[in-house]
Amino acid sequence: MKQLALVIDLNVCVGCHACVTSCKEWNTSGAAGALSDENPYDRDPSGCFFNRVQTYEAGEFPATETVHFPKSCLHCEDPPCVPVCPTGASYKRAEDGIVLVDYDKCIGCKYCAWACPYGAREIDEHQQVMKKCTLCVDRVYDQKLPEAERKPACVLACPTNARLFGDIHDPESEVSRAIRERGGYTLMPEWGTRPANHYLPRRRGRDTK
Amino acid sequence: MRPALSVILFTTLAGAGQGLFLALCVVETGALLGLLPPQDGARFFSAGTALALVLLGAGLVASMFHLGRPERAWRAVAMWRTSWLSREVIVLPAFMAAVSAYGAAHWLESGGTLVLGALGVTLCLLLFVCTGMIYACIKFLQEWATPLTVVNYILLGCASGFTLAAAFSGFAGGGAWPSLAVMAFALTVAACLTRVAALARNARLRPKSSLQTAIGVSHPKVVQKSQGFTGGSFNTREFFHGGTRAQVRFVKWAFLILAFPLPAALLTASLAYNLPAFLVAAFGVQYAGLLAERWFFFAEANHPQNLYYQAIS
Q: What kind of fold does domain A4-76+134-200 have according to CATH?
């Protein structure tokens, strides 16, 4: 069974936020309506985003490393957000493992957001429905797009190729090989959610000389 | 977690309404067994049922304010196989229907009140379990993921409901109020014990998740430098109570005093001075205490997603 996912290489992410803005641009322009913002040009701006890049520092000064960390829905193989949904608006597609929200069924009770340990879901304050990363489901199957562009907007935008996209259940896919050969790991494994998205850890030392 | 007023009102109002209904059924059964004075059906049971329905209805209205799309609330009955929230949405109206039928049967003196009462009691207990499990089933909200959560919803609802039943009985007449006050006292003591047990358990909790597991960097020292945006977002609002440590501690002591020893003292005073007016004060104080208790219940729960939102820039 297919499981589409992102594999994010923490060695090369430079924290430029191009994936954040391209995600917002694509997903605010689709048939599902805008990803709305509150006071975007005013005090206390706020808004609905599917993808964020965060920055962490590991180590003790001066031996520190800056880690840029892109964060979006992980499309868990055992998603805790799905069974708690009272309406069935939150669901996991059998055909490709993408976790989606049916905006026409969502009642905005926020229970799924409580049930996601990663904080991957955000309510759209204008539509009052829960939203989250769709893995650009409205791009990746679009036959009108050239095949090379049938990828999530964030993957196409990344200038360092830090984001890989593919089927992690196909052992020969680019993402499966990257996970296997480069020690791909998942977030908060302690909760048994089995995220589909993986991260490639920093390699020790410097690659370039 | 951010304590939502709608959910605080719903769970406290419905809990008191459920407890009141259970108290009415206890009085009817007790009278049948000759342990409690018999009551006038229309005056006591129908009026008491109406009061319970007012509380449940008010709770239902309050719960609607929690929904972004209340007009679609009917859809929430769909996923009862997996979702405790869906089960609650089914059981609540079923319980209200049973309570209405019970009150109507007493009003019309049509009989069958014991059967309707038994049905109501079953649905009432199911509703308590559904409400408690909504919180207890989220395993990574470690403060909630304990059977004590369900036990507390049951006992806190029963304590406030029986206190209200005693106050109601004091004014409706029929002579059952001293017995109800004794039962309310016992339930308040029991609820105090289990709620304090939950507090003690949660004080010893060690979070399973850390910044290391959240981002998968194993170095013992990891700090967030930026959450990725300067403004707020749903993630920075929904999962934090927004108060200071001192405020949270104040609310904890407020509920520990208002919900348990103060109403227990007022219940005792009503019996000692044979004055049912104290019971009204007991319910008022206890209900205020339970509002604080519910606020604290949410504020205390520490969602692991907060690990990702520690520093703006």
A: Alpha-Beta Plaits (3.30.70)
